[in-house]
Amino acid sequence: MNLRRLAVRIVAVAAVLPPVFLHAAPRHRWVLSANENKLDLVTGAQRMVPNPAPDNLTLLDFAAFPPRVREIPNVPNTVLGPPSNVAFSPDQRHVAIANSIIPDASRTNGWRPGRSIHVLDLSQDPPGLATFEGQGLQPSGLCFSPSGRHLVAADRAGGTVSLLRMEDGRLTPIHSLPIADPSVEVADVAVSPDDRFVVASLTKTNQLALIRKEGDRLTDTGRRISTYGKPYRVMFTPDGRFVLTAGAGNGNGLDIDALTVVQREGDDFLATGHVPLAAGPESFDISPDGQWGVAVLMNGSNSGIKSPIYRDHGLLVLFRRRGDQWTRDQVLPTGAIPEGVVITPDGRHVVVQCHPDRELRLYRRVGSRLRELPQRIAVPGMPSGLGAAR
User: Fold this and answer.
1) How many CA atoms lie within 13 A of 228 on its CB side?
2) Domain count within the chain
3) What are the phi and psi torsion angles at 9 (to 5°)?
4) Nearest to 132 by CA among 167, 156, 90, 181
5) HSE of 333 in the Cβ direction (CA atoms, 13 Å)?
6) Does residue 17 belong to any structural domain of this protein?
7) Residue 4: which H helix or E strand, with range?
8) What percent helix, strand, coil does the chain show, rounded to 5?
9) What is the CATH number of the domain that holds 75?
10) Which of 10, 76, 241, 338 is surrounded by the most beta carbons within 10 Å?
11) Which CA distances in Å does 224 have to 24, 206, 269, 390?
12) Residues in contact with 19: Cβ distance below 8 Å, sequence separation at least 6, in sequence order
């Protein structure tokens, strides 16, 4: 066949193909920021804002850069608890957002614990939103099971870990496991990639709790893993080899805090090391390939301007895995009171929430280093919870 006839055939076939085959749209690379307006941290303490604007969400798609941005109004959420109160389902169709507190003017602190969890449906345009009542009190950290059939919640004011069934965008509570006294503050949870274990951070006792997951049931193994400082965020590496958690110490200075590395061998979990970070870790994320991660640290920026340890900026730390060892590789300044941090689904960018500035700062991975980009994304609230699709 000569080239002219071949070209005619290609054009003829292309003419009958659906547009999706001719111009395949890039895969969505979702990041979601939960922003609140009712609770402010800039004075160094929690302060309820009078007559606040409604809380909201900012949905970003990093399939292109700069990312496409969409605002979703009137979705209550809170800065209280780890920024892991946002969790994407494995199929990337749904996002769960914990709504941990309810404003209550009769309370001294201005709020009381809640139970609700929102589910955002990204398969709809505009995204659909539904709210469900969870089983535990003050759901905080959230994590989906690898199959997406279950959502696991850390119930900070209840001392429990809850298991909810996820089906067609609906959440149904099916089991609640008491794991600690409520004063211990169960802050976050992580589900192992093989769906056999859940690890929960017990903030006030400097421990992780190891929980066995079998079908629709959770069982406390009784195993408690010691951590550096007060563990908050907790995550498994994608290969299930490690559990990482970042903890702040009990001091009132700018002492260096650390990441605790827990190594898994079969059913055995053992804390094997610590990675010095900086002062006041708030959150961290692990790259999709499991070979590096980032953490954000308060660095005194949440202490109030009159405090002797006040600093006008937070810190972003890059850490790296080399075999079974983890090391700190880079420290960068970032905005004050950095709440959440995520690595985008393609591993190219890092997003940092800057609470008082009401903005997201962006960083790009260049070789083995991070570089801050000039683009910043304003959000209509104080960004407080952050998640990325995987």
Assistant:
1) 23
2) 1
3) -65, -40
4) 167
5) 7
6) no
7) helix 3-16
8) 5, 55, 40
9) 2.130.10.10
10) 338
11) 49, 9, 10, 28
12) none
**Residue 308 falls within a domain, yes or no?**
yes
Write the DSSP assignment of 81-98 as a string of letters: S-TT-EEE-TTSSEEEEE
Which residues are 383's β-sheet partners? 35
Write out pLDDT tens, residues 313-372: 999 999 999 999 999 999 999 999 999 999 999 999 999 999 999 999 999 999 999 999
What span, in angstroms and rounded, lies between the C-alpha atoms of 55 and 78?
A: 8
Q: pLDDT by residue (tens digit) across 200-228?
A: 999 999 999 999 999 999 999 999 999 99
Please compute the mean of the pLDDT values over residues 225-247 and round it to a whole number. 97
pLDDT score, position 251: 75
For residue 122, being part of any structural domain is answered with yes
Q: What is the DSSP secondary-structure string of 110-163?
A: SEEEEEEEEEEETTSSSPEEEEEE-SSSSEEEEEE-TTSSEEEEEETTTTEEEE
How remote is the C-alpha of 128 from its chain's centroid?
21
Residue 373 lies inside a defined structural domain of this protein: yes
Asked whether the predicted pLDDT for residue 273 surpasses 50, the reply is: yes
CA dist 155 and 201 (Å) reads 11
Q: How far apart are CA 127 and CA 122, in angstroms?
A: 5
Residue 15's pLDDT band (boundaries 50, 70, 90)? very low
Q: Are 28 and 63 in contact (CB under 8 A)?
A: yes
Give helix then strand counts, H and E, for the chain: 2, 30
Could you give the CA distance from residue 117 to residue 97 in angstroms, rounded to a whole number? 6
Spell out the residues 6+ positions from residue 47 whose beta carbon is closer than 8 angstroms to its own. 39, 40, 41
Which range of residues forms the domain containing residue 218? 28-388
